[in-house]
Design a protein that fits this description.
The structure is a single chain. This protein is α/β, with parallel strands linked by helices. The chain is 38% helix and 19% strand. The protein folds into four domains: 70 residues; 98 residues, OB fold (Dihydrolipoamide Acetyltransferase, E2P), CATH 2.40.50.140; 189 residues, 3-Layer(aba) Sandwich (Rossmann fold); 157 residues, Rossmann fold (3-Layer(aba) Sandwich), CATH 3.40.50. It has 24 helices and 21 strands. α7 crosses α23 and α9 runs parallel beside α10. The longest helix has 30 residues. The protein starts with 18 loop residues before the first helix and ends in a 9-residue tail after the last helix. About 4% of the residues have low confidence. The structure holds adenosine-5'-diphosphate and magnesium ion.
Amino acid sequence: MNSPITLKTTVSQLQGVGSVYQKKLEKLHVDTVEDLLLYLPRTWEDFSKITEIAKVRPPGTYCIQGNIWSIGNKRSVRRRMSITEAIIADKTGTMKAVWFNQPFLIKNMKQGDEILLAGRVENEYGKILMKSPAYEKKSDEQTHLGKIVPTYKETDGLSSRWLRYQITKLVKIIYSFKEYLPADVIKNQSLISYSAMIRQLHFPDNSYQLEKAIDRLNFDEMFLLQVAVQNQRKTLDKNRAISVQFNEELSKEFVKSLGFTLTTAQKKSIWEIIKDLEKPTPMNRLLEGDVGSGKTVVSAMATLMVARNGFQTVFLAPTEILAKQHYESLKKMLEPFGVRVALLTGKKALLPSVIPAPPSVIPAEAGIQSSLKEENVKSKKSVEAEVLKQAKEGEIQVLVGTHAVLKEDIDFWSLAFVIVDEQHRFGVGQRAKLRQKSGSDGTMPHFLSMSATPIPRTLTLSVYGDLDISVIDEMPPGRKKVATFVIPPEKKEDSYEFIRQTVKKGRQVFVICPLIDDSENMELRSVTAEYERLSRMVFTDLKIAMIHGKMRPEEKERIMSDFATGKTNILVSTSLVEVGVDVPNATIMIIEGADRFGLAQLHQFRGRVGRGKYQSYCFLFTDNQSETVQKRLDAITKTNDGFKIAEKDLEIRGPGEVLGERQHGLPDIKTQNLMNVELIKRTKTEAKNFLKKNEVNDFPLLAEKISKYDGVANLE
Ligand code: ADP
Ligand code: MG
């Protein structure tokens, strides 16, 4: 091969990379020299310290240097293997080393060779013995031993030893990776250059240099993320939004009408949202709080302010059932103030039951004067058309719906506010569409996303850095803790008996079936089997129903409403089905195969009970007795704090799992970095300073890196 090696040279052109290795590298997405150099080590072993044989104290791991006195193969008949034995000597003593089933080693190592060995040393009948050590002949430039050596993620037949051998040659040839970080950032943070980082990661000169290289690597990872999310926010803030004025009198009346006092956390959240609504730039806020913490009330108050200012709100829920429920509760809370609430989903359209009022002046005393009762309504199509018409003419102030609202080309009279419940369940494209639903005057609506999935604080500071966050971390008074237990198979009978007693007292029960890959068919089978088993063999005398994702929406709705009204005792459901419907009479939550769910998810399920005045229970069924599983499940029995649970989940399962669908396009970021508060603060501040003075687009290499983060946790 004559042409000089560059970063773009394909690996197949390198010496020692035949088609076999090329295929193996391809699996790791390594096609070019650049890819190979960017295939960074996972860990390092410090073999820089050479110990004199006399000072070796078994057991322990050592690197020694000496001469081969003797080397040879022998066969162990009893153990049916070949053993290579060598005696090594340095000026302080001798030591034996053995290797198993590698007879070819005697071709690489010969008597008299000066050699380095590293590995675990054991005591064998009073003598020291090194078992299967790594080896390398002494030379001017060591690759594998006598220094800090990298360990790569290895795949079948592709060893760290081979990778080191290839990469060491390349590192010598390739000096300059283009620096993409702004010079100021490098200076402020005392970082080493990008090229130096790559070189030092593969072949550190010493532990200090390695530390600097790792520091740069971690800094970059989190800094890029910070620049990406903060830049998204910067772009967003360039838009105009309608400024909504706060009406104190109205807020007091609203609170009075609720019949309960708001928790401190609710008040704080409302205040934060009100402040955002007053601003002429769009709100981009996440309202977090466990199921039942009272998010809907908070959003209703904000909606009321928007309506009183003469503007419209769209409220989106991920499922028909939830949309209907939100519609009902918003109607109840807002109609007394003359706010007209309508529903539009794929299956249903409902008009408000209040006489239309001019949008700009909604008198609080408008009251309920039902003119358009549901029963007056003819076909769905005509109601839908009427809803659309009224939205356009401004006669509806709040439109509740599912994504069907997005499919329609709805024109709004003056849309100022978009609320999305559990927004991560909407696809990215759908979310983009939400944002485009702006008012006629080119403003962008304020955006509030609500979620019952607690996000660890470190993630809200990093991945969700473009969001402002309000947290309801306090339950309305009087809620009892859900008593949670891990139930092994032998105790299952007892829990069934407990269920029977509880149902006799008039309470109800949820049963969640185990998660089975992502296949809906498997899910269906699992939920059906569990339903059959429970109804035929366990609770023959009770009314059991089942619900799953494959059912038609009307069917699901009927089953849910039968359960909500107490017609059925037990509801068997898949994890995918939204059981967010409020059933205060349900007091037991059974989770089959609990070990297959993440902690945050289990916590979510648990939130479905304990919503009424009765003591509630959550039983985690599992036949997995492994210590890690038991420890994990124990964690959830001990705490009710969703945030603590989420942190634990992040630690155990990593960000991909925790972020779930939200992590669209999230590049591979180390969990360890995502949990490192200090690193997050450091990169956040640096990114902020950078963006204050600069535009990302003036730094093309940086912009290119950032583009990989497009849409990360983005509400657009
Ligand atoms: P979330 O949407 O967070 O799951 P909701 O807003 O649906 O919670 O509230 C759950 C229930 O608690 C509702 O019936 C609501 O009326 C009630 N609620 C909300 N806030 C309070 C409060 N501060 N005190 C008492 N009950 C409340
Ligand atoms: Mg809710």
